[in-house]
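During the no-cost extension, the postdoctoral fellow (Dr. R.K.) reprocessed legacy sequence entries with the updated structure-token encoder. One reprocessed record is reproduced below for audit purposes.
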Amino acid sequence: MTAKRVPSRRSTRSVTLAEVAAHAGVSAQTVSRAIRQPSLVSEATVERVLASIRATGYVPNLAASHLASNRSNAIAVLIPTVSASVFADMVQGLDQAVSPGGYHLLIGTTGYRLDREEEVLRAFLGRRPDGIVLAGTVHTEASRELLAAARIPVIETWELAQDPVDSVVGFSNHDAMSALMDHVCGLGYRRPVLAGQFPPGDVRALRRRAAFEGGMARRVPEAPRRVFEMAGESSSLAIGADLFERVRREAPDADLVMFTSDAFAAGAILSANRQGVRVPHDLGITGFGGYDLGAHVSPQLTTVSVPSAAIGERAGHALIERIGANGRTGEPVTIDVGYTLVPGESVARRQG
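Re-encoded structure tokens follow.
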């Protein structure tokens, strides 16, 4: 029986910069420059160093580098969930904006909970990011104190704020929902209901709800203000179908269901098609968000399109400006990316 070989201390430790230099036939200082300032080294030398890094499996000690430069080249991003495509699009846009500058993303999720945001924020600040991007503009007092004490650029997104921590890139959820209300009421809908999820920490959904209720009071004050809520935090077709069933049972006189998410609205349309409910003849349906799937269901969804990727991209550029070449040089900004009302076939002008 052959004895199992026990790896030596040398075979399990990290490869050093000096070993990479020896493999490449250059000095350790040249290796360091090739990694951090390749423009100061000839192209041929950079290629030789990179080949030696691949051959030796060398991983730079970023912690030591960060201590020396006071930079981590990391951007912390806090989003409610990774399951929603709008946040995935935002993160993609953010990454495309900051990665050319050598920055990498640390991504954390909050589950629409302000206490969870505070917990993740505290953990990320311990890693000394160069900047922070937050999905939302409402935070605990402790979170705001942490952000102020960190003295790094902060970009809040997805909503506009009257009292921002630093900079803001977003739009007015209230105005967007109000515009959708005006559109459907202008088509003759008089008994709309709102359906979705309204977690206490999802201020954006709560502002859409406030806009719905305000629009009802303004446009159809004689109608009841009915809101159907489903517990949970994730948007899905199944939840939309369940909400649709509830509305059909509990509000049979409703002429329109306004969903807080395109995913919910698409699930409702699919459920209606299975049951022979004619949309929009029997019941109108609207969504919110401008998800790709809204354009592919039949009938095509009426919704509000939000530039998710642009929110991330513009937040990234604003963050780079705030960080600056030698510290925090840019001024705080407020950027309204706006929204677009997208009329579809899921609503139609009502007769009478």
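Residues 203-219 form the longest helix (17 residues). The radius of gyration is 26 Å. The remaining legacy entries will be reprocessed before the final report is submitted.
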